[in-house]
Amino acid sequence: MKLSISSTTSRCIILPLLILYILLYPLLPAGSQFINKGGTVTVDPSPYFLLGSNLTVYCHVRECKRSYKISLDLNGVTVKDRKEVNCNLAKFYLPNVHMPQSFVVCKLRGVQSTKIVTGLDLHGGLPPDKPEDIICEVTRSSDFIGCLWKSGQKTYLPTTYNISVNRENGTQIYLDQIQNAEEIKIPRGIVDKTKKYQLIITAYNHFGVSQSNPFILCVKEIVIPETPHITNVEFENGSISAVLQWKTTDLSVHLKPYVRLCTYNSSWDVREETELSDTLIRVGDLTPLTEYEFQVRTCNSTFRVNHITVPSFTPGPTSSQRLPCSKWSSSVLARTPGKGPSQRLSVWRVFNSQQNVTVFWKPPPPQDYSGEVKQYNIFLASDQIKEVTCREASCHSSVLVPAAVQTLSISAVTSYGSSPPADVPLRHSGEVGPVLRQPAPAANGSAVYVSWSWPQTKSWSTSGGEVLLHYVVQWRSVPATKLWWQEVEKNQNSTSITGLTAGVRYNVSLFAVTTRGVTAPSSVLIYSKEQKPASGPNLTVLLHEAKRIQILWDELPVNQQRGFITSYTLYIQTLDSSNQALRGFPVEGS
Ligand SMILES: *[C@@H]1O[C@H](CO)[C@@H](O)[C@H](O)[C@H]1NC(C)=O
Ligand SMILES: *[C@@H]1O[C@H](CO)[C@@H](O)[C@H](O)[C@H]1NC(C)=O
Ligand SMILES: *[C@@H]1O[C@H](CO)[C@@H](O)[C@H](O)[C@H]1NC(C)=O
Ligand SMILES: *[C@@H]1O[C@H](CO)[C@@H](O)[C@H](O)[C@H]1NC(C)=O
Ligand SMILES: *[C@@H]1O[C@H](CO)[C@@H](O)[C@H](O)[C@H]1NC(C)=O
Ligand SMILES: *[C@@H]1O[C@H](CO)[C@@H](O)[C@H](O)[C@H]1NC(C)=O
Ligand SMILES: *[C@@H]1O[C@H](CO)[C@@H](O)[C@H](O)[C@H]1NC(C)=O
Ligand SMILES: *[C@@H]1O[C@H](CO)[C@@H](O)[C@H](O)[C@H]1NC(C)=O
Ligand SMILES: *[C@@H]1O[C@H](CO)[C@@H](O)[C@H](O)[C@H]1NC(C)=O
Ligand SMILES: *[C@@H]1O[C@H](CO)[C@@H](O)[C@H](O)[C@H]1NC(C)=O
Ligand SMILES: *[C@@H]1O[C@H](CO)[C@@H](O)[C@H](O)[C@H]1NC(C)=O
């Protein structure tokens, strides 16, 4: 017992030590801390270097140890290009250093162990670019003039900007300094609002100095409208547009508002939208169920500037070329509501009997609504509603329609609203409709092109108030199974019906739907592609006399014909001879 306890304790003491050692060791080179100052590292030309420079690093160790070799790690990788000057000093070449932040660690490598001598951080950088695109702006009520500029490419090192404001005769009246920034605020009180001043920005860092072109600062030319605020966002029902209410402390009479908006990931989209009133703007074309960020700014529409008549969102370099626009307001976040379907459904019907009607409809296109279709409502006579759920690409339901009822309608119900009801035409107009022409099968065997024309006598302009609404092309396989249909716009006179199966006979019918009702159909039987019959007909011998037999055969079932039968061939064989074809018959006989 005792032994086991003591052995656990000792393991517990040794373990943390080992872990500490392992943990500490690789951490040491990071930064410029080192365990014992066993020497120095120097860099030629300097640990602050221009990116892309060739550096020479000297590693100088205090104690000369024969069994150890001086080595250098750059960012954890041993430097190969090394020259030993003597046993205290080694020289390392680092060509073309492009890393802005690096560190070198000087080590003594022995056979048994490695000792860290010292380390050093290296800072690469670039001289500053000339500050460009200076803009200064002030609102009527502000105590500060805000100036912005573009600092150009990244320097990687602290870069200071001296901002000086000078009188026209060159006397400096103001100097301020800011580091790593692209904007500064200048007290308005230092300048006379009618006089012109020069603003000069000087950028400098370890590698150089760069001065901007002078910017002419004249307060009365840089006044911009006050920053407006969005006070309310409302979405209009159904249509995906928002109404923003905004306000400003300026007189808003001559201020034109602009809106910019973005969604979570996107960049700003600047829009000039419909103004509903002085303080209301409608923003259209939004996506349902999306979080938007809105901002508003105003531009002074009475302000006259040479050559520029519309606001420029990329202001020029001097104050006289910009249009006075306020800063963008702070953002307001709002989520658009869902959208109900806006288009009526495509509907059709087939009579099973005088009063029993199967109604067909297609689900609304997914881009027309958000959420899910919960159900379809079929509005029957006297406020009766039949609710149907359907998840198919084509839906149907049979309903009993009293003779007096002339239309019923169908609407899709989603979580965010219902589609406008689509009327199912029940009435027959009792008229002759357009006539289908001979259909043309497509080469791929799964589609047929159908076209039609109206009888010469039919003229729409003279048919007393009757209006053509659209056409319906309906097709179903023979023998009758499923029904398909397609609505065709009234200005069309042809369509392709697709998704057909080769070897299947279809009955294609065309109807015209008018305000008076549905015309009588024009029908045609088609194959998208004819195939060989699946079998031969069964035949029976009715009469067998000397030199004469009478035979009868059944017509093949349609699904075995797989094409239009054009002729039968009768084969006859005597028992003592080989097959002999007699002749072909036209299809009429059976
Ligand atoms: C760095 O040294 C290479 C040769 O090793 C030379 O070609 C190059 O010009 C040098 N680069 C600079 C910036 O001095
Ligand atoms: C920037 O301004 C400071 C005084 O605030 C001055 O000492 C320094 O020389 C200026 N630098 C340049 C590059 O003009
Ligand atoms: C520049 O003008 C100001 C006032 O207008 C004056 O006080 C100053 O002496 C002038 N400086 C020079 C160098 O002329
Ligand atoms: C919003 O709905 C109301 C009734 O609920 C309706 O009167 C109004 O026209 C609808 N507005 C829009 C823009 O659809
Ligand atoms: C944001 O963008 C990333 C990548 O571009 C994408 O994976 C992500 O789904 C987007 N998020 C939203 C909310 O659009
Ligand atoms: C708009 O510009 C005109 C002409 O410069 C100026 O008189 C007016 O005060 C400005 N309005 C605002 C709100 O800044
Ligand atoms: C209407 O006819 C269809 C097909 O013939 C049949 O399935 C359905 O039960 C009938 N509906 C009613 C309400 O009689
Ligand atoms: C067959 O051709 C028609 C018309 O050329 C086309 O609409 C249809 O998509 C095609 N079908 C296939 C499966 O390629
Ligand atoms: C179909 O309409 C086109 C013009 O849209 C016309 O040129 C063509 O003659 C029409 N065909 C028939 C069969 O009416
Ligand atoms: C084809 O369909 C029409 C319309 O439903 C129908 O009147 C006609 O009898 C059908 N023809 C055949 C051969 O089934
Ligand atoms: C021929 O007769 C057989 C047996 O009665 C029957 O199974 C088969 O379906 C018939 N074939 C055709 C094409 O009528």
What do you see in this structure?
It is found in: Membrane. Its main location: membrane. It comes from Solea senegalensis. It holds the Pfam family fn3. This is Interleukin-12 receptor subunit beta-2-like isoform X1. By secondary structure, the chain is mainly beta. It folds into six domains: 24-123, Immunoglobulin-like (Sandwich); 132-223, Immunoglobulins (Immunoglobulin-like); 225-335, Immunoglobulins (Immunoglobulin-like), CATH 2.60.40.10; 346-423, Immunoglobulin-like (Sandwich), CATH 2.60.40.10; 428-453 and 466-527, Immunoglobulins (Immunoglobulin-like, Sandwich), CATH 2.60.40.10; 539-588, no CATH class. The chain is built from two helices and 48 strands. Strands 35, 39, 40, 42, 43 and 44 form a six-stranded mixed sheet that branches. A five-stranded mixed sheet has the order 2-9-8-4-5, with no helix packed on it. A hairpin with a 4-residue loop joins strand 8 and strand 9. The longest helix has 26 residues, at 2-27. It is elongated. The termini are far apart. Residues 478, 507, 509, 521, 523, 525 line the site of one 2-acetamido-2-deoxy-beta-D-glucopyranose.
Question: Can you lay out the helices and strands and say which pair or pack?
Answer:
Blueprint: H1 2-27, E1 39-44, E2 48-50, E3 53-61, E4 69-74, E5 77-78, E6 82-86, E7 89-97, E8 101-109, E9 114-125, E10 132-139, E11 144-150, E12 160-166, E13 172-179, E14 183-187, E15 197-205, E16 208-211, E17 215-217, E18 223-224, E19 229-235, E20 242-247, E21 255-263, E22 269-271, E23 274-277, E24 280-283, E25 291-300, E26 332-335, E27 347-351, E28 356-361, E29 373-379, E30 385-388, E31 395-400, E32 407-414, E33 417-418, E34 422-425, E35 428-432, E36 435-436, E37 440-441, E38 447-453, E39 468-478, E40 483-489, E41 494-498, E42 505-514, E43 517-520, E44 522-527, E45 539-545, E46 548-553, H2 558-561, E47 567-572, E48 580-586
Parallel strand pairs: 2-9, 10-18, 35-43
Antiparallel strand pairs: 1-3, 3-7, 4-5, 4-8, 6-7, 8-9, 10-11, 11-14, 12-13, 12-15, 15-16, 15-17, 19-20, 20-24, 21-22, 21-25, 23-24, 25-26, 27-28, 28-31, 29-30, 29-32, 32-33, 32-34, 36-38, 37-38, 38-41, 39-40, 39-42, 42-43, 42-44, 45-46, 47-48
This protein binds 2-acetamido-2-deoxy-beta-D-glucopyranose (11 copies).
One 2-acetamido-2-deoxy-beta-D-glucopyranose binds at residues 442, 444, 446-447, 496, 498.
